[in-house]
Write a structure and sequence with these properties.
- With 323 residues, the chain is an alpha+beta fold.
- It has 2 domains: 15-142, PAS domain (Beta-Lactamase); 159-322, Reverse transcriptase/Diguanylate cyclase domain (Alpha-Beta Plaits).
- Helix content is 44%, strand content 23%.
- It contains 11 helices and 10 strands.
- A hairpin with a 5-residue loop joins strand 3 and strand 4.
- The longest helix has 21 residues, at 138-158.
Length: 323
């Protein structure tokens, strides 16, 4: 048995007919959504309409939205120039667009809004009006900001030594590359101080790895107190080796700082007493200063200074060797 044919009855109006006969249907639908509809007359820059939902969202009465000046005045000052300039330029060009910004509430708080704008042209192709919807995107923005915060936190963790809390090798490599380029441009000196704790394996054998971790952390904290300019970097280079990146630091200043490091490490008074070591923990240091020019690379410089560290170790430890 075949299915009966379905025909539209001529006496039943279509949806389009219903809207045409009763424009209030449009208004009812618009005002029942959470989105806030609005219309602006382009010539007068006045609101022809804005949905009553605006009062529930921002607290401003529906009738208080008279001109675009009211819209601009209720926008966060930090967003105003960017958003207004963009929306005006796009509207003049007859391009539909959208913009995110913070809208001021009557209580003095701010709500994140996404404005979706459609440009209406007349028969001659001239902009006649703007029609749009405002959406509350505060929850979305909070989620985005939280994701961004977590991303930054993870990025920071990826650049930080987990034990000592100072920069790790990855961050040092990034900063060395950046400061090498800066030194090439500025012709300012760039210095490195590399230090290694003397007989650290014997220290761990004598006192245990927990004490070894505490030793590394105390020395890292002390080094951070010496190299404390904004662009200085103190990093754990690996194991018991640390490195200081010192932009715009000449050879004399680098030597003085290396000497201070050596003196302060011994002044910490960390008992060593391991085989072949002295009574207190000490360090050997390599120091170098570069004026970046020619074909030399940051890697070449780093290797040369690191070689001076091992020369200090071969020379008896607890000493400084200069490149």
């Amino acid at each position: 048995m075949s299915a009966p044919a379905i025909r539209a009855r001529e006496d039943v109006p279509t949806t389009q007919d219903a809207f045409a006969e009763n424009p209030d249907v449009y208004k009812t639908l618009l005002e029942s959504t959470r989105a806030i509809p609005w219309q602006i007359d382009w010539a007068s820059m006045r609101f022809a309409y804005i949905g009553p939902q605006i009062e529930a969202l921002l607290g401003w009465e529906q009738g208080s939205w008279r001109t675009v000046d009211d819209w601009v005045a209720r926008m966060h000052p930090d967003d105003r120039e960017r958003v207004v300039g963009y929306c005006v330029s796009q509207s003049r060009a007859g391009i539909d667009h959208e913009a995110d910004y913070r809208a001021l509430t009557r209580d003095g708080d701010y709500v994140w809004i996404r404005d979706v704008v459609h440009v209406v042209r007349n028969a001659q192709g001239v902009v006649d009006s703007l029609i749009g919807f405002m959406f509350d995107i505060s929850e979305r923005k909070r989620a985005e900001e939280e994701l961004l915060r977590l991303h930054r936190e993870l990025e920071e963790l990826s650049l930080t030594d987990g034990l000592t809390g100072i920069a790790n090798r990855r961050r040092f490599d990034q900063r060395l590359a950046a400061e090498w380029r800066a030194a090439r441009r500025s012709r300012q000196p760039l210095s490195l101080v590399v230090l290694d704790i003397d007989h650290f394996k014997q220290f761990n054998d004598a006192h245990g790895h927990v004490a070894g971790d505490d030793c590394l952390t105390r020395i890292a904290t002390m080094l951070g107190g010496i190299a404390k300019r904004p662009r200085d970097v103190v990093a754990r280079f690996g194991g018991e080796e640390f490195i200081l990146l010192l932009p715009e630091t000449d050879a004399t200043a680098a030597w003085d700082l290396a000497t201070e490091c050596m003196v302060r490490i011994e002044a910490l008074g960390i008992t060593h007493g391991g085989r072949d070591a002295g009574a207190l923990v000490t360090a050997s240091l390599g120091v170098g200063t570069a004026y970046v020019d020619g074909k030399a690379t940051a890697r070449d410089f780093l290797q040369a200074v690191d070689a001076r560290l091992y020369a200090a170790k071969r020379g008896g430890r607890n000493r400084i060797e200069v490149l």
